[in-house]
Specification:
Blueprint: E1 2-6, H1 16-24, E2 27-31, H2 41-48, E3 53-55, H3 57-61, H4 64-69, E4 74-78, H5 86-97, E5 102-105, H6 110-113, E6 128-130, H7 144-153, E7 158-162, H8 168-181, E8 188-193, E9 201-206, H9 207-210, E10 220-224, H10 230-237
Parallel strand pairs: 1-4, 1-5, 2-3, 2-4, 6-7
Antiparallel strand pairs: 7-10, 8-9, 8-10
Length: 239
């Protein structure tokens, strides 16, 4: 059987239900390719009291984990909540197609935690993902800004998830170039670092102020607020 278990946002955020399942699994993997984890594999091992193996994209998408789940109980530990990444939904589909039983144990995700900014969750629009640009390969996709444009047309806030490995200043530069391409004016942005952890940090500044910003810790995300209710503005400006 294959278990997809959400770790939540902090290193000890796994649920008791998830811990109980990990204890009975013969193989335990930690998915490490969709997000910059705010904790190490060793720290997770200390929490679950079991040896863990890192699972990269090649291993998971190569379906080796499904072959193992056909013979024994296997757990895949996933940052946040298991099905926020489409790759994990695909994994479930492949398992079911192979006749492998599956179970998903949900947990908190960044989609919950952004509410700490004071911005109301129901006022967020479509979620955008910013990939890492590779100018030497002429790869500079800016379609994520099209989503922002659509959100702003309906006065919805935009949450932008950042590609694994992308440093903040590079992301800021990409954001500015993409905004220019879509004729979007960037005002004050929200930067969320390591939400849900003990060292989480939320910042609300202009893009020019952020250009002088350093020491941003991963994982982080960026929010482009749209029209705000006065309560949203009051809470956000405290940051």
């Amino acid at each position: 059987m294959l278990y997809l278990i959400g770790l939540g946002l902090n290193v000890d955020g796994i649920s008791q239900f998830g811990l109980d399942i990990v204890k009975k699994c013969k193989k335990v993997y930690l998915e490490n390719y969709t997000v910059d984890l705010p904790y190490t594999k060793h720290q997770v091992e200390e929490v679950v009291n079991k040896k863990i193996t890192n699972a990269d994209r090649e291993f998971v998408e190569g379906l080796k984990i499904i072959d193992e789940a056909a013979k024994l109980d296997v757990a895949l530990l996933i940052y946040g909540s298991p099905l926020t990444a489409t790759t994990h939904i695909t994994l479930l589909q492949e398992a079911k197609a192979s006749g492998i039983k599956t179970k998903v144990i949900y947990n908190a995700s960044v989609f919950d935690a952004v509410a700490e900014t004071g911005l109301q969750l129901y006022k967020f629009g479509k979620i955008a993902s910013m990939p890492e640009w590779k100018p030497k390969e002429n790869y500079e996709p800016d379609s994520f800004m099209k989503i922002v444009q659509e959100n702003q047309s309906s006065k919805a806030h935009s949450l932008i998830l950042i590609d694994i490995g992308l440093e903040f200043q590079e992301a800021l530069e990409q954001l500015e170039k993409a905004a220019q391409a879509y004729d979007i004016k960037l005002n004050r942005l929200v930067l969320c670092q390591r939400l849900g952890t003990r060292n989480r940090k939320i910042s609300y500044k202009t893009i020019e102020e952020f250009k002088e910003f350093s020491g941003v810790r991963k994982p982080y995300c960026i929010i482009l607020p749209s029209k705000m209710h006065f309560v949203e503005k009051e809470v956000l400006e405290e940051f």
